[in-house]
Design brief:
six-stranded mixed sheet, Aldehyde Ferredoxin Oxidoreductase,  A, domain 1, Aldehyde Ferredoxin Oxidoreductase Protein, subunit A, domain 3, 3 domains, alpha+beta
Length: 567
């Protein structure tokens, strides 16, 4: 059976126990929801003693299913004030599963301001070790220091100076498989601030001497089903632009149709989008010794990660993604891909969400603090955030804080969280997801832009958003959503895999009800935290201002949003 660790930062104790029976077959987002609703008062101060910070693996972690080793981080969000699950790749979840651990919960607050590391040793012991020597150290230097001390057969989960300062847009950075770069982010919702409030600098997970062996209900059947799904993902990857290029390929899909955000969601087109698109990216990789088709976790056959070098061939950043490029790029009028890569590296290093941070930069440009397209000025503001200057601290609290500080009337946030890189006037279903997701404006909660339907009209978009939000809530409990897209034709196999691994029902309804239950639990948590229907709204300017590219506006009325989850 799976185990859990309970870390009491007040008493500075670590306790290992068998995970509760009712949580054994949960994972990821579903486990976060069920744990928080039972253990965290929804009305609590997100940075207070009653909030918990949890780390958990997926339903199928430690198995042969590709991309099953995702790490979910959860708690009451310091940014949104509601429930938060932030999902990341990297090496940490695989090593947790190898230790037989599904859940780590960090509770209470330390009695002093010391920093600590939770170290899970190769022989399976879990101990808190003082980490004052790492205070103020950002993520890249921290990982190098840890490797120098404990070797490179490990994974790290860490915060940089942003988390220590409890910036409300602070991320938690997870090291990539093989390279060890701290470039995979549990980015959204300010969970890095929650980690900082607990006095926890990092979790260091060493590769175990003896790998945990889970007792399957029917291991042979599970492995046969996993092989079938792995082959589907591998076959789909042959023509998947995320595999063959990377998520930056989305620039080409959104740049011509008004979905790509331009100059703080102005609705304009950006004729220079190809300057930060796939061709430029691939050329730079080829001429500088960079790489794509890299797995961020063991066993991934989709391999959408990358290593991006500067003009001298030196490593600059990895996991260089569409959201970061679109929001620091066209949404700020910047066309220098290398400058955007430097912005990505700084954000990963100090530990902040690139989505909220890039939108904050756009607020500076819209209000005249910076000129549109000012890459040098942007890098200077990121340095202010790293240095902790007065305005740098405002920046660290995200887009809404900056917009309000500078007097902007057009702040692209929902539930205080900045929008991802899709203009909701031209992908209406995604706009509905932004508005109604318990997570805030999060595209991974149900991005409706796809080949199955015309996303630029109203018809059926609420229905599509509803179904995708259910699907994403159980996908985020099981595997990477990029791989999940390739197994959609065989989704009933996931129910069979649940039965083969944990026993009980093998019906597909076991999976779908997990998705519905997760969403309703999250919404219940948010309601008890004080959220109302008014929090399920897009900013008014998306309704009032038509997209200059298409003439479209977000024309979904409030009633349609209010009844979306009346299943």
């Amino acid at each position: 059976m799976w185990s859990k660790l309970t870390i009491d930062m007040g008493a500075l104790t670590v306790e290992k126990q068998t995970l509760e029976e009712e949580l054994q077959d949960l994972g990821g987002r579903g486990l976060v929801a069920q744990y928080l609703i039972k253990n965290v008062p929804p009305s609590c101060d997100p940075l207070g003693k009653d909030n918990h910070l949890i780390f958990c693996t997926s339903v199928f972690a430690g198995t042969r299913l590709t991309t099953a080793n995702r790490l979910s981080v959860g708690g009451k969000s310091p940014l949104t004030g509601g429930i938060k699950e932030s999902n990341s790749g990297g090496y940490a979840a695989a090593l947790l599963a190898d230790h037989g651990l599904k859940l780590i919960t960090v509770k209470s607050l330390p009695d002093n301001d010391k920093l600590w590391i939770l170290r899970i040793t190769r022989d399976g012991k879990a101990v808190l070790e003082e980490a004052e020597e790492y205070r103020g150290m950002n993520n890249y230097d921290f990982v190098d220091a840890i490797k120098g001390k404990f070797g490179d057969k490990l994974a790290t989960v860490s915060i940089g100076s942003a988390g220590e300062r409890m910036y409300r847009a602070a991320s938690i950075q997870i090291s990539e498989f093989n390279s060890g770069h701290p470039s995979r982010a549990a980015a959204r919702g300010g969970l890095g601030a929650l980690m900082g409030s607990k006095g926890l600098k990092a979790i260091v997970i060493e590769k175990p001497e003896e790998k945990f062996k889970f007792e399957f209900n029917d291991e042979e059947k599970f492995n046969e089903l996993a092989s079938r799904l792995n082959k589907m993902v591998a076959e789909g990857a042959k023509t998947d632009p995320f595999h063959n290029i990377g998520t930056i390929a989305t620039i080409e899909a959104t740049g011509e149709n008004g979905i790509l955000p331009v100059k703080s969601f102005s609705g304009q087109l950006f004729p220079q989008y190809k300057e930060v698109g796939a061709t430029k990216f691939m050329t730079n990789l080829a001429t500088r010794g960079g790489r794509n088709k890299i797995p961020c976790q063991p066993g991934c056959v989709l391999q959408c990660s990358n290593c991006y070098n500067d003009e001298d061939g030196n490593y600059l950043t990895s996991g260089f993604e569409y959201e970061t490029i679109a929001l620091f790029g066209p949404n700020c009028g910047i066309t220098d891909l290398d400058a955007i890569a430097r912005m990505d590296r700084i954000c990963d290093d100090i530990g902040v969400d690139t989505i909220d941070t890039a939108n904050a930069i756009a607020m500076c440009m819209e209000t005249g603090k910076l000129e549109w397209g000012d890459a040098a000025g942007t890098l200077n503001l990121l340095k202010e955030m790293a240095d902790g200057t007065g305005f740098g601290q405002v920046m660290g609290n995200g887009c809404e804080a900056v917009g309000k500080e500078l007097g902007s009337e057009r702040i692209p946030v929902v539930k205080h969280q900045a929008m991802a890189a899709y203009d909701p006037r031209n992908t209406i279903g995604t706009g509905i997801t932004y508005a109604t997701s318990p997570m805030g404006a999060d595209h991974t909660a149900g991005l409706t832009m796809g080949r199955a339907f015309d996303d630029r009209g109203r018809a059926a978009q609420a229905y599509v958003s509803n179904k995708l939000q259910v699907a994403m809530s159980f996908a985020d409990s099981m595997m990477c959503i990029f791989a999940f897209a390739h197994v959609v034709p065989a989704l009933p196999l996931l129910g069979e895999m649940m039965g083969a691994m944990y026993g009980g029902s093998s019906e597909y309804s076991r999976v779908t009800t997990m998705g519905v239950k997760t969403l309703l639990t999250e919404r219940g948590f948010n309601k008890m935290a004080g959220m109302t229907d008014k929090d399920d709204r897009l900013p008014e300017f998306f309704k009032m201002e038509r997209s200059q590219a298409t003439g479209s506006r977000f024309d979904i009325d409030d009633y349609e949003l209010d009844v979306l989850f009346e299943f």
